[in-house]
Amino acid sequence: MSDAGPEVPPLAMDALPLGRWSVPRDAERRTDQDLIATLRTDAATRVVLVSGGRLAGAHDRLRLVSPADLGLTNAAEGDPGTPLEWFYLGRDEESSYLALALPPEAGGVPIAAVGTPDERISADERVHAPTHGDAQWVSLRESGHLMSARDAGLATTAVALAAWRHRHRFCPRCGAATHLSEAGWSATCTVDGSVHYPRTDPAVIMAIHDHEDRLLLARSSAWPENRRSVLAGFVESGEGLESAVRREVAEEVQLEVGRVQYAGAQPWPFPGSLMVAFHGWLVPGGEAAPVPDGVEITHAEFFTRDELARAVTTGEIGVPMRTSIARALIESWYGGDLPEPA
Questions:
Q1: Which CATH superfamily groups domain 200-334?
Q2: Are 113 and 101 in contact (CB under 8 A)?
Q3: Residue 145: DSSP 8-state
Q4: Contacts of 122 (CB under 8 A, 6+ apart)
Q5: Which residue intervals define the domain Nudix hydrolase in the entry (predicted)?
Q6: DSSP annotation string for 265-287
Q7: Is the peptide bond between 267 and the residue preceding it cis, with omega within 30 degrees of 0?
Q8: Cα–Cα distance between 309 and 10 in angstroms, integer?
Q9: DSSP-derived pairing of the beta strands 96-102 and 46-51
Q10: What is the per-residue pLDDT across 16-44, written as a single tens digit (0 to 9) for each?
Q11: Could you read off the pLDDT of 300-318 as tens digits, one per residue?
C-alpha cells in the first residue's frame, strides 16, 4: 500500500504526563507476604492516599505521608470485607512507597475528615492525612501533567490499582470474594485459590492527516458541544493495533487510512486503559471528506494549523486536557503548545 505523509518523530516522554515513572517498581519483593506489614512499621515508608481518581495532594504534587501519620493501627489486613487496602508501588533510594485505597466516596470530603472504619476498627478511629499546608483531594486527570515524574508515576499506578480492585472484588470463576495478594498486584479467590491480575485494556488513539497535512478532529456524542479531539477506540479481540486504527476511522467517519505510524503510549487509568497513539494518513486518491456515523461521532472536520489556532483562541472549540495523550498528539502536529483561549 503506497501512502503519502512524512515521517513524524515519536512523542517525547515529557509530553506523556502519565507515562512518566522514576521509582523502580521492585516487582521481585511483591511475593514477600509480610512486605506490606513490614513497610507499614517503617518510618521511611511513604503512603499515597487514593480515592477513586483522586489523590491526597496539592494541585502539582502528591501529599506523601508516613504510615504513622494515618492514625490507623489495627486495620484488617487482607480481609475481603475491609474497605482499606494496600498496594506496594516500589522503592527508590529515599523510601518505599505504598498506596492506600479508600472508598470512592472519600474523595468528596475534606482530607481532614477522611474516615473508613470497618468491623475491626473502633468507631472513633479514622484515616487522616496531615491537615497542614494545601492538602486536598486532587484529580489525576486535571493535575497529572503538573506533577513530577516521581509523583505522576506513583499517582497513576495507585489510581490504576485502586480502580481495578474496586471493579474486580470477586472471583470470575466461582463468584466468591477475593483477597489481595502479591502486595496488591493480584487477587486470590478465597474458595478455589485461583489468582487474578490487574486488567489493562488497550485502546488506539490517532492523529489522522489528509493530503494537505490537515488534522482531523471530531466530537463524540457524549461531549460538550464545542469539544473536539482526535479519534480513539478500543482494540477488539484478535485485532492488531494498526488494524484497529484503520477500522475505527472507517467506522466513525468513513475514511480509509493507509500508512500508520506509531507515536507513543501512556496509561489512562479511568479505569484501566493503555492509550497507544498513532499518526495515520489517508489513502492517496481516496475520499477526503469525513462523514460522522451520527452515533458515536456527531461532528468531524479537518483543520489547518491556523484554523485550529483561531478556533481555540476564540473558544469556538475546546481541546483535550494537557494530561491526555490526545493533547500531545495534537500539539505534535501543531508544532508546539496550542494557544490559550482569549
A1: Nucleoside Triphosphate Pyrophosphohydrolase (3.90.79.10)
A2: no
A3: G
A4: none
A5: 198-325
A6: EEEETTTTEEEEEEEEEEPTTS-
A7: no
A8: 23
A9: parallel
A10: 999 999 999 999 999 999 999 999 999 99
A11: 999 999 999 999 999 999 9
